[in-house]
Design brief:
Distance between the termini: 29 Å
CATH architecture: Alpha-Beta Horseshoe
Structural class: mainly beta
Helix content: under 10%
Radius of gyration: 14 Å
CATH topology: Leucine-rich repeat, LRR (right-handed beta-alpha superhelix)
Number of strands: 10
Strand order of the largest sheet: 1-3-5-7-9
Order of helices and strands: EEEEEEEEEE
CATH class: Alpha Beta
Number of helices: 0
Largest sheet: 5 strands, parallel
Length: 126
């Protein structure tokens, strides 16, 4: 599902997590706000989650690590805070993770200290 650049407002309804067979959720460059619902973790087949360039607040839900097929995660340019959830990089399929331009804090993910060259993680301006 791609609904980017649509000037959407409001929040992501938790019921969206019921779309368990969804492979892509792109809501980039809208005016969505509020927390990212933990129910997104129910989307077991999700490969692409792009929520960048909105006004999401709060922490990144740890349930995103339940999306075992996730290849690309982009939550950059929001107002997210707190540390990155434990286990978010445990998914071996995750190739790109964009967290830039938020208010995230905490330690750098351990996988960045390993010799894994096929993954990209962007954390600048936090």
């Amino acid at each position: 599902m791609r609904i980017g650049n649509a000037d959407l407002t409001g929040t992501i309804p938790p019921e969206l997590g019921r779309l368990s067979y969804l492979k892509e959720l792109t809501l980039s460059n809208n005016r969505l706000s509020g927390p990212i619902p933990s129910e997104i973790g129910r989307m077991k087949l999700l490969e692409v989650l792009q929520l960048d360039r909105n006004n999401f607040t709060g922490i990144l839900p740890s349930t995103i690590s339940h999306c075992a097929q996730l290849r690309r995660l982009d939550v950059s340019q929001n107002k997210l805070s707190g540390p990155l959830p434990n286990g978010i990089f445990d998914t071996i399929t995750l190739q790109e993770a964009w967290f830039s331009m938020n208010a995230l804090n905490g330690s750098i993910p351990a996988f960045l200290n390993t010799n894994i060259t096929s993954r990209k993680c962007f954390l600048f301006e936090n």
